[in-house]
């Protein structure tokens, strides 16, 4: 990070400023790649859930940047409407996450699970009898 010419700042925050500058460059690169493709074209390539995720991430990023802008202007963002907007977006992000998690959850085939458990359990029987349980002895 280049040293400021007109102002000096405490050396203790230099590492934080360098990290902040790197984060800004990363965010700028991501925004440039998103903005290089027309939104309509981008949305055509995504399913409804991915579209919702993109819209929510975009809204959250934009409101987060506005939050930071308010701080730089000396305004407490906790007392501004942007706080409620971020909470609203977070609520919808959690709903989308729940939907995604439900889709990823494996489905249980009760019949298969029952057979696996029945055959996996050891059944003590006197010698000479089959080790496999008979269908009539188990329901």
Automatic annotation (TrEMBL):
Annotated compartments: Cytoplasm; Nucleus, Nucleolus
Principal location class: cytoplasm
Alphabetic keyword roster: Cytoplasm, DNA-binding, Nucleus, RNA-binding, rRNA processing
One Pfam family, short name: Sas10_Utp3
Matching InterPro entries: Exosome-assoc_fac/DNA_repair, Sas10/Utp3/C1D
UniProt GO BP: maturation of 5.8S rRNA; regulation of gene expression
Coiled-coil region list: none
GO MF assignments: DNA binding; RNA binding
GO CC, alphabetical: cytoplasm; exosome (RNase complex); nucleolus
Domain of life: Eukaryota
Signal peptide: none
Role, per record: Plays a role in the recruitment of the exosome to pre-rRNA to mediate the 3'-5' end processing of the 5.8S rRNA.
Assembly and interaction partners: Monomer and homodimer.
Protein family according to the UniProt entry: Belongs to the C1D family.
The protein's name: Nuclear nucleic acid-binding protein C1D
Organism: Chiloscyllium punctatum
